[in-house]
Every structure is written in C-alpha cells, then in structure tokens.
Design brief:
The protein is of the alpha+beta class. The chain is 25% helix and 28% strand. The strands form 5 sheets. Strands 9, 12, 15, 16, 17, 18 and 19 form a 7-stranded mixed sheet that branches. A hairpin with a 4-residue loop joins strand 4 and strand 5 (45-49).
C-alpha cells in the first residue's frame, strides 16, 4: 500500500515553507513518526514525519523546494511491513493553525546558546553569495516595517545590580535544589516588568488601526538566538508565574530553540519583549520594537562603575537599561516612569523572589 506524505497544516500567516535536506532517501526503510525532512517556515522549523513504517519509494519535491500545506512531498510503500490500513492512514497531528508572532527584535539573545558551526567563508580575493534563509528574510522584513510604521523613541536608565547579586548568591543553591533550575537574572527582570505594568498598563497595550488594544495578560517575548536566526518565544501570563516557573520556561525555550523544536504556538502573540545584549558584552544599545507590541526593554552587560551614594564614591555593578516605545501610544512621562519603576523593583528585589 502506498501512502502520500503531505506538508502539515500551517498557520494563517504562514503560506508556505522551504524543504531542507532530506533525512531519508529513496529505497531506505522508515519507521512510523520518524522525521523524513524538515520544513523551514518564516518562524520555525517543522518536522514532516512518516505516517507509517515502510520503504521510501518516491521523493516528489527536492531539497530547497517551496511547498504549501497539504502538498505531497514523498511516497511510502507499506505493503511488506504488516501495517494495517487503518493504522497506516492515521494522519500525523497537524500543526496548530494559530496566528504567528513577529520574530524581529534586535540585540543578542536573553539566553546564550552554544555557537553554531562556522559559516563557510570566501577564498581570498573572491566573494561568496547565498540566498537568505526564510527566517532571516522575515526578520529583515519585520525590522524595516517597524522602522517605518512606529514612532520609536528610546529612554535610558541604569540600575544598581548589587541587591539582585546578593540575593542570588544567598539563595541560588537552595533555589536550584528546590526547583531543579538555576536562579538567573531573567526572572527578576520579568517580574519587575510585570510589577511596573500594574502602574503603567499602557506599556502593555497596542495600536490596532484607530483603536487601542488593552491586554489583560502580560505575554512577554524573550529574544533568543537560534542556530538559524533570532526567535522570540512567548512567556505567557508572565504576571502569574513564580521565579522558578519563569526560569524553567526560559531554559526550555533556549533548549528547543537550539534543537529547532519551537512550534508556531510558542511564537504566537506577545504584548511586550525583553532582549539581553549583555550576555555578549553590549554596554548600551537601542532595541527595535517587535510589532504590534508598543515597547521592548533592552538589558545590557553588568559593569562595575564608580557611583555616588550618600555623598561617597563607591564601586557598584551597574547595568544600563533601554526602553524603546511607540510614542504614538505611550507618552514620554509614562515610559520614563515605567522604567524608573523597573529600576526601583530591581534595587529592592526581595519581593521579586517571593512565590506568586
């Protein structure tokens, strides 16, 4: 019995994808649910699995082909594998057809990942040309669109990270034993942002045509660099999460970004973004908005600097923060006070570590 392998259902905003290298070739045996080929979309890499065990007898589309949902890409012969027709014809679970979040946020990842294999370089005196990946093309498109559609403005502040450092040192061992995850910086920033948004909900709002959309939940996009480009998985209902839940979710995102296992649902939505250039040493930069969001917070490297405290010059671990916001919706006063509230929460962080 021959079974056609088809492209899974995509989301409404993803019309097609590009086939990457085939993992199996004609004549090879395949197992049910074994990945035959990866499909690169504008947002994520999806796996196209075998629907049943058998022999791969035909490849309908070559590596690099652009294919659409439900298009046949291969054929499997199941006759000699003892697979019942009912089992053989059972379709693979479709990819959720949900709106896909934009992936464009600049600066380095919030979570550093192992470096990908070195890119091939051109020989001396020569140039090398290659097409952009779909993900890189989409990032470029979104960045340019953000520049053209929003009235972006950036406000800066700096935060003394010594209180957070001391708290982490005091509780990190107990935290890891209790929760099975390391206590990083991101949970402090996520919870500080959520706390500040209680006072300034406009930072979590968005413009839709001539309307303002007020969001009841704080769904924070965490910018992460993957081997194939920048992705922004969404930490949903962040205002309800404990520090342990935040750290575990971000670690999970980082692992699945590295292994190209993020789903369309992981990247859907988002009302605010966090990005951390500090992991690569960035001292100060201006992040670009992640439309349709109205604000993004950029974190930077922690650097010991002399500061004045109570009339004395002391050395403290300082971090610059940058909040880029859409001035069409958010007034400068609200943006500045929101960033000051984030700073205040981080400099008195005991409440940020409490369980929700």
């Amino acid at each position: 019995m021959k079974l056609e392998v088809r492209v899974p259902t995509l989301s409404d905003s993803v019309a097609s994808g590009t086939l990457l290298a085939w993992r199996k070739q004609v004549g090879e045996t395949v197992a049910r649910d074994e990945t035959l080929v990866d499909l690169e979309t504008d947002k994520v890499i999806l796996e196209i699995p075998a629907l049943a065990s058998g022999t791969l007898v035909e490849l309908r589309q070559p590596e690099g082909a652009v294919v659409k949902a439900d298009e046949v890409v291969a054929v499997i012969e199941t006759g000699e594998n003892g697979v019942s027709p009912a089992a053989a014809e059972k379709p693979a679970p479709p990819v959720a057809a949900t709106p896909v979040a934009p992936v464009a946020a600049v600066m380095a990842p919030s979570v550093p990942l192992p470096a990908a294999a070195a890119e091939p370089v051109a020989a001396p005196g020569e140039s090398r040309r290659e097409p952009m990946s779909r993900l890189r093309s989409r990032v470029a498109e979104r960045l340019v669109a953000a520049q053209h559609t929003a009235a972006m403005l950036t406000t800066f502040n700096e935060v003394n990270m010594q209180p957070v450092n001391e708290l982490r040192q005091r509780f990190k061992a107990e935290f890891e034993v209790r929760h099975g995850v390391k206590l990083g910086y991101m949970s402090f920033f996520v919870r500080a942002v959520c706390q500040a948004m209680q006072q300034f909900p406009v930072v979590n709002a968005a413009i839709d045509g001539s309307d303002i959309v007020w969001h009841g939940d704080v769904d924070i996009g965490i910018a992460i660099s993957s081997p194939r480009g920048l992705v922004v998985p969404i930490l949903r209902r962040a205002q309800t999460l404990s520090s342990a839940a935040i750290e575990a979710a971000i670690a999970d995102f980082a692992g699945r970004a590295r292994d190209a296992k993020l789903t369309l649902e992981d990247l859907s939505g988002g009302t605010f973004s966090l990005t951390n250039g500090g992991v690569f040493g960035s001292l100060l930069s201006t992040p670009i908005l992640n439309p349709p969001q109205s604000a993004i917070l950029g974190m930077h490297t922690i650097q010991e600097r002399p500061v004045a405290e109570n009339g004395q010059v002391v050395i403290r671990p300082m971090m610059y923060l940058a909040l880029t916001y859409d001035h069409r919706l958010i007034d400068g006063r609200d943006a500045v006070q929101f960033l000051v509230a984030v700073k205040a929460a981080l400099e008195a962080p005991n409440a940020l570590l409490e369980e929700t």
